[in-house]
Amino acid sequence: MSEQQPKAGMSNTQTILFMVVLSFVCALILSILASALAKPKEIAKDLDRSKQLMIAAKILDHQGHLLIKDKGEYVIGKRLADGSIIPGSTEDIATQDDLLETYDNRIAPLLVDAQGNTHTFEESKINEEEYLSDYKKTGYYKQPLKLVYAILPSMKKENAESEKPKPIGYVIPVNGYGLWDAIYGYLAIETDADTVTGISWYDQKETPGLGANISEPEWQSLFPGKKIFQPTASGETEFKTAPLGITVVKGKVVDVLGNSPKAQSAVDGMSGATLTGNGVTDAYRDVLAPYRPFLIKLHDENKATSKED
After folding, report:
1. Which of 10, 96, 149, 303 makes an SS bond possible with 171, Cβ 3.0 to 4.6 Å?
2. Among 95, 98, 72, 97, which residue's Cα sits nearest to residue 85?
3. Which pairs with CB-CB distance under 8 Å and at least 24 residues apart come from 15-21?
4. What is the pTM of this model?
């Protein structure tokens, strides 16, 4: 009786063909998943940018609490069904609906022309979604009509719809380059057009523990109260000619500039991240310069209103 011959294995051609088919199927699955997740991923990015803008504007803190100004101080707020915000507690974490509703009610995107006048997107006949997408990477400050966000006061829904609330501050988008790549953030200012309300950096690829600290609350807390127009040696501010921006010094401001007027427009640097700090300094200087007409006009209007009051 003859022995049973073993079955022949796969040939090299069959093995290669199997690997090709398997690779194609895997690539197809990954492509389908990437396509399916693209929209949710973009929505998540948009939500994060909105949160970072509200953090700069002192509408939201880094822990997810809404903020409200009470007796001159920012305290944790709680959003009511009518849209108003009252003082709350640490347990009042904002839901996604709270964030979206608050953003819609309190943040108004506007366009600024070369003379410093503001216009809505509708008045300018510009599609807001396309504008935001087209110029995000290159920078809105380079456009003839530059982007700025008005910060509106907290108020009930019915009042917000019937009244035209006066902005209590503005947010300017900022972008530049750090050590490794582009950096994107927000700078919020008060209506005097000079005092910083807050900042945030929502997109950066700097070195963790070093340059990446520009996204940390501790470092960002150095900015509120700083001046974007650098005062003269006498302490006066010439809005038409003063250097614009905030300088990130190498070391501590008190050691480098002491109590000089320049210290009002400077913040402490980050240890081991001098080049990132330089990038932040350059970003504020380059972005704010084209907004000077808007800032001067805002300052003059605020000054006139203060005299009337």
Report:
1. 149
2. 98
3. none
4. 0.82
Q: Which residues are paired to 119 by β-bridges?
A: 111
Query: If you average pLDDT over residues 241-259, what whole number do you get?
Result: 94
Residues 6+ apart with CB under 8 A from 118: 110, 111, 112, 148, 150, 294
pLDDT tens-digit map of 131-185: 999 999 999 999 999 999 999 998 765 555 556 789 999 999 999 999 999 999 9
List alpha helices for 57-186, DSSP H.
Answer: 96-106, 121-124, 128-134, 157-162
CA dihedral 39, 43, 44, 49 (to 10 degrees): 140
Q: What is the rounded CA–CA span in Å between residue 285 and residue 282?
A: 5
| Residue 171 contacts residue 188 (beta carbons within 8 Å) | yes
Among 29-43, 101-115, 200-214, 224-238, name the one with the lowest average pLDDT: 29-43
